[in-house]
Write the structure tokens for this entry.
Amino acid sequence: MIEVKELRKRFGSIVAVDDVSFSVGKGDVLGFLGPNGAGKSTTMKMLSCFLSPDSGTAKVAGFDIIKESIAVRKELGYLAENAPAYEEMTAESFLGFICDVRKIKARDTIERVANKCSIENVLHQQIGTLSKGYRRRVGLAQALIHDPSVLILDEPTDGLDPNQKYEVRNLITELSAEKCIVISTHILEEVDAICNRIVLIDKGQVLEDSTPDEMRKTHGGNLTEIFRKLTTGQSKNAVGGAA
Amino acid sequence: MNKTMRLIIAIFCVAIITICTTLIINKKFGRTGMDLTEHGIYTLSDGTKNIIKKITQPITLKLYYSRESAMKGSEGIQYYNNYYLYVKDLLDEYKSIGNGKIKLQIIDPKPYSDEEDEAIQFGVKRFQISENDSFFFGLVAETQLGKSKTIEFFSQGRQQFVEYDISKLINRIISRDKKKVGVLSSVEIMAPEVSPYMAQMMQMQGKAMPKNWLAIQQLKEKYELKNIKVNDYKAINDKLDYLLVIQPKKLPETTLFAIDQFVMKGGRLIVFTDPYCLSDRPKPNPQNPYAAMSYDNSSNLNSLLEKWGVKMKDKMVAVDPTLAISPPGNPEPVLPFMQLTNNEVNKKEIITSTLQKIRVIFAGSLETVKQDGVKIIPLLTTSENGGTWQYKNPWELQRPDSRKIYQEMINGGKDTMLAALITGDLSSNYPNGIDFEKTEGEISAGKKKEAKPKKIHLKAIAKTSGDAMVIVVSDVDMISDMFAYQQTFFGMMAQAGDNVNFLFNALDFMSGSTDLISIRSRGNIGREFTAVKKIEQEADKATASEAEAINNKIKNYRQKLNNLGSYSSKNNEQLIEDKAMLERKKIEEEIRKANKAKRNLQAGKREKVENLKNYYSNINQFFASAIVLMIAILLSIYKMAKARKYNARRTR
Amino acid sequence: MNGFLSVFKRELKGYFFTPIAYVFLVIFLNFAGIMTFKDGFFEAGQASLYIFFINMPLLFIFLAPAIAMRLWAEERKSDSIELLFTLPLTSVQAVLGKFFAAWTVVLLALILTFPMVITVYQLGNPDLGPIISGYLGSFLLAGAFLAIGSFFSSITKNQVIAFVLSIVGCGTLLFIASPSVMFRLANYFPKSLVYIAEWFSLQSRFESLLRGVIEVRDIAFFLILIAGWLWANIMVIKERKAA
């Protein structure tokens, strides 16, 4: 459902995403890995049509992100890195606004999604007063509210306590059968727990595109070791390659 | 390519497109729009349109405005920039209505340029605002034949009459030059036309040549004047454009009838009457020197005017302590000598809007008489402190005693009207015409003695068609040489104050066609705080008896004080003097107290108005904001309650 | 249209969820009243709202930027812009929705000055025409200021900078044709250009409306101005969402 073709994006002289291609199908949960500044968020922002690529393109749910961006955004649930929201609003009215924009009936939907994300207790609180974990779950609720076929979640479990993390992972697993999900994370055991695909990128380039099992097979060791090996080793190679 | 650069270029393009669209719309639509004002004061009136229709040969309007100099000038000059834009817009409108018959040139005369010379030649006023810059803001209308008329300067005070002024200019350039004015006067205001031979004869006999009044002399430059004898009723006819009646004393009925009919037929009439005319002196009569003593120099035209809504009160002189001036050689102000200033002239009327200073002497007091369809507009009044004084016999006026007059003054509470403009539908005083016997020199008014020979019947028009127009002034002396002019250092006579300007403006105003006058009649309605006026009037009414009591008290004390003065001067003994002093002090104290009480009354009135002001001021500052605050508080309470309820439900 | 309405409603709620709208309304209503009476409205004794309206530019030059400054700067600062533009909304809808929400607050403020109208009707017999056109002019003037404020808000994250820039922008357009400025301009630019500048003076357009005459070109001027600034605003938002 997501097909990324040679996406490229630069900010001034820094190349943030360099020729990234991969594809994700229905039922897949793709773990998008990479060190900080690798270009994960930028790629996700492009996929969610917030940023436009300098070159290359992608198709999300069959729509081109450049030419049919509105259609893409209709089909897509996106949770941004810091789970941005309107802080002065209560969680309920915030979700109401999302429903309004997405043209869905607010009443039952909010109840349902709040249940799913366990935020019923804070629906009447201002988002600005919520803890980080609740905020993120409100963000998640926002992304799920219209039952999208494609979910892009940028660090969905960041700042949650272990119980909450567990819940969210369960939720994602539960959703994964019907949807195509891309999550980015730094927590590698999380990848193991929920992802059936891994794309590892660094310096804007795709290093690995496989499954967790396969990765362990080809590189040996656990995911953390593989991650360290690939990302630090790659940098050496890159310097060598450049020279 | 750099995105930011691209963005800046794009925004620059947007700016250009915006600017161009604005300019195009400006050009395309000009002043099209909707005039929402009640009287459509910003739309060219039908009067103007009619005048423009009458243009047969093309005329050129040249608007001179020193735009560049104005920019460099002081704030005061810069004010004119907006005014100029307004005039320019208005002229554009004229041009578009003119259908090609009006050409408009806008000229910014640069210093030392041909344009500047031309402007000066046309008589546009020039103001030197700095060493190198001069300022022009005037309009010239020019025909192809080279005839030209000029508005020498668009002055600040006449901004509301700009349309009138421009239309008048156009009207003047397309119509006949000199208007004909009939002058009918009981005093010798115009010299009889004497043949050169007669003049020579008189000079040889040492007789003084009768001379025109200076005001008349000045009028002659602009108008064709015709002297009409008091009994020459036939001369008052359609050939005159308007009629000036001065000091009408016991006019024969035929003349009154003729004047009446002149007005009915749409003629314009200006009347100067006077309860005590200093310029009207008896001819020296050696046979009977005492005749001068009983000479009556009052005049009025109430017999006609009352029916038209204005009456001059009998034996009444308008006085105003706050306006009194001292006549030359008199140290003290004399009450019936008044100098009217800005507040006493009607600033909303074209005739008087620019006048600043008018002197009147023994002016009468005009009173409105309610008549249907007649509109009376006061032109000159006293201030609100003014009133009237009734004299018992003319002797009292020869040596007016200010103190006595002050005491006897009837304080009208309202301003007393000194000059008025009558418009509307007037009806004739002689709806059935008149009959009279035609015998030479003497005319007796016949009352329907029909079927007798030698009687002449004159038919009458009973009502005016369209707007009639009569101006009544209750003082003749104001246009006399004595008060309207003063000797300058070089022995020339120069105008003193605006007295003559009043006459000129009045004639000028009346000379306008009905079209022109219709322009005037729009939109100058003052929108005063009627509520405040009402409160003041009610307060005045409520305290009227009290105020009068206090006034009487003061009067009494003054009387006492006077008596005391004369008493003590007769008795020079110290003891009595001391006693008198004591007494005097006591009375003065009383007067002080009474005055204070009077002030308190005034203060009460002021307080009421002040309270009203505070009330509205508070309402406007706090009412709406209090509502907003209340809503804000209620909403937050509601939200808090809702959240609490929700939480309570959850935890249960 | 739906997107526009959603954004409009949310933004309007945003004003009333926070104290901004209340503070704005209270200050505006108070000052409008105080200034009118201080400038001798009562002493002039004329049943007309001219003195009331003539203060509007001065009030709005501070208050309009104050309510416009948050429109985009806050979105940028809290990253909620990322949320906004991953919803199925176009930039045009978002910009217009926000602008009209701010304009509605101003409209409400103007409506709440109704005691002024009642006052003149109680004190005398006013001409309704200039009152109507005065309100229209004030509304359009505020609209122009808000469009300017919205634009400057969109180019920065910092509300204070947005506020200051907007005041400068509004002030420039307000005073450009005042004679003293014209005179200075005339020293540096060709005269024809300076005379053109005269057409762009908000002050004279506003005063022209106060007379009670609604002219096509005055109305068009304000509308074009608003459209122009909003257009620029849309372009900035489209091109620099993330910055």
